[in-house]
Amino acid sequence: MSETPQLYNSLAPLRNVTSLVSLIERVNSRAIGLPGLAAFYGHSGFGKTTAAIYSANKFNAVSVQIKECWTGKKMGQAILAELGIKPQKTISDMVDQIAHELLLSDRVLLVDDAQYLIKRGMIGLIKDIYESCGTTIILIGEEELPQSLQRWENIHGRMLDWVAAQPACVADVDHLAKI
User: How far apart are the C-alpha atoms of 112 and 46, rounded to whole Å?
Assistant: First the structure.
């Protein structure tokens, strides 16, 4: 019997997917005492969200895509929903719940559209979560994310690595052409 190729195979080893996976592995395997925050950033359309979806599945990560209209409370509720936990009433209690569960489960937290954390003044909540559990947290955002985070030295200084998403290359096109 001949093997039929899959018609809708949509998995391709694109370089930005590989870059994010490598970043998560690097942060996960960091030496004791090194920071566990990192950033994956770049222009719109470079596949950062697609890479985040793939990575969330690969690592069983908690993934949340921040919306521009969100408040800190809504962000806490969204992360807790991803964790399958009923949120407490206050933001500080939700931060404690998130940190506790991430610490127990040792899961990665992926925060997509992280530029809205800065725009809405919620970036400190991510620092609070990280400081409470020390788990790997990857901020994914637009190309100005590193410069925007410089205003928060206490967060900028906790970043283990900064990885810029790249435009598609010929190898990416070859992979995509097959599917």
Answer: 13
The C-alpha atoms of residue 43 and residue 116 are separated, in whole angstroms, by 15
The 10s digit of each residue's pLDDT in 103-131 is 999 999 999 999 999 999 999 999 999 99
User: For the whole model, what pTM was predicted?
Assistant: 0.89
| pLDDT value for 7 | 47
Amino acid of residue 152: W
Residues 6 or more apart from 163 whose CB is under 8 A from it?
A: 19, 20, 22, 23, 38, 39, 40, 41
Sign (positive or negative) of CA dihedral 149, 138, 62, 29: negative
Q: What b/e sequence results for 113-126 when a residue is b if at least 16 CB atoms lie within 10 Å of its CB, and e otherwise?
A: bbbbbbebebbebb
